[in-house]
Amino acid sequence: MNILIDIAHPAHVHLIRNTYFELIKRGHKVYVTVKDIPSAIALLDKYQIPFISLGGRKDSLIGKALLQIAYNIRVGWLVFSKKIDIGFGSSVTLTHISKFSKMHSIFLDDDDDAVEPLVVKYAHPFANVVLSPGTVNRATQKGIAYNGYHELAYLHPNRFVPDPAVLTEIGLVPGEVYFVLRFNAFKAHHDIDVQGLSIENKRRLITQLEKKGKVFITTERNIDDEFKKYQLLLSPEKIHSLIYYATLLIGDSQTMTSEAAVLGTPALKCNSFAGKLSVPNELEEKYQLCYSYLPEAANDFFARIDELLNDTNTKFIFRKRKDKMLKDKIDVTAFYVWFIENYPESARIMRNSL
Q1: Residue 293 forms beta bridges with which residues?
Q2: How far apart are CA 209 and CA 227, in angstroms?
Q3: Which of 39, 228, 257, 336 is most buried, judged by most C-beta within 10 A?
Q4: In sequence order, which residues have a C-beta less than 8 Å from that of residue 248 and are 6 or more positions away?
Q5: In 3-state terms, what secondary structure has residue 157?
């Protein structure tokens, strides 16, 4: 089978990499395309995944729309020339191409319809299948739900073993108290009018945490000049091991908060999405693995941090909660591989099981 995976965000590399290698191992021909995203390209290089660069990247909606046309042309040529059977991933481009070719598109989406109107309008109608975690609110009849999270495609215990060597690499010793802070750029199409931590609250957060341990900051793009001394200097493929051993993960990032949660590391976020997304809501409300606060509730956010810091059993409690969550969820990579190899029968099976 000929399969095409298109990468539009660094997180997509983590999401698909195990599926990529499993499919290759099983004898399939898998092509990977990627937009001009340095961090995504760096990850593909680190994991030794060959890729075809599509170039281009814009932050404005108009810029994104114009580039989308160019992506469709480039990817369309590849689909026709390589006789692609299935397009797989969180790629609007693949859904569009599937309407004008023999390729079927399997679109991965873990956000609720309400927070991504452009994806609902310009991706879901064109996809053959929209695969989502079962907790997501999804309207399209093309939707198929599975019992897992995107993060469990690469952080399920079957796929991930933390490496304590990362601690030594950045000057830490096992058991040392440290905090990973993740600050988002909010440049995605669904981030319009979204707020995260203000510069004042970032300062307050660092002051609060430095009294207890070391602080490391990772950002989606450029770091603020005043915080550069805290910048995390670690190869990006090692970040999940660092999160696993961290005392807390704190910031205004969606994905990294959920990653910390499924690893059993206490995670807190403060942004405009708090309480509005089904996956982090389930991790917070059902499994108590993370906490979310709106920017106007920043004082509650800081109070919760103090509460966690003052409880010496916090990490042990969260590991137990993680174990409970894992008993309820599947190895998502194994599911993806099964779904692709058995498509379209796999889609019929999943729909009949509802």
Answers
A1: 270
A2: 14
A3: 257
A4: 179, 180, 209, 265, 266, 267, 268, 305, 308, 309
A5: coil
- Considering the entire predicted model, what is its pTM? 0.92
Residue 132 backbone dihedrals phi, psi, to 5 degrees:
-145, 155
**Cα→Cα distances 278→59, 122, 134, 272, Å:** 26, 21, 9, 14
How many other CB atoms are found less than 10 A from the CB of residue 296? 11
CA 164 to CA 30: how far, in whole Å? 32
| 8 Å CB contact between 190 and 61 | no
Q: Which amino acid is present at 196?
A: G
Taking the C-alpha atoms of residue 205 and residue 305, their distance in angstroms, rounded to an integer, is 9
CA R_g for the chain: 20
Phi-psi region of 264 (alpha: psi -120 to 50; beta: other; left: phi over 0): left
What is residue 309's DSSP assignment?
H
DSSP state of 49: -
Q: What is the Cα–Cα distance from 221 to 224, expressed in whole angstroms?
A: 10
Structure tokens at 261: 């949660």
Residue by residue, pLDDT tens for the chain (354 residues) are: 999 999 988 899 999 999 999 999 999 999 999 988 888 999 999 999 999 998 766 556 676 677 778 888 899 999 999 999 999 999 999 999 999 999 999 999 999 999 999 999 999 999 999 999 999 999 999 999 999 999 999 999 999 999 999 999 999 999 999 999 998 754 444 444 567 899 999 999 999 999 999 999 998 767 888 999 999 989 889 999 999 999 999 998 888 999 999 999 999 999 998 999 999 999 999 999 999 999 999 999 999 999 999 999 999 999 999 999 999 999 999 999 999 999 999 999 999 886
Evaluate whether 28 touches 84 at the Cβ level (below 8 Å). Answer: no
Measured distance between the N- and C-terminal CA atoms of the chain, rounded to whole angstroms: 28
SS3 (DSSP) at 124: coil
- Is the bond leading into 125 cis (omega within 30 degrees of zero)? no
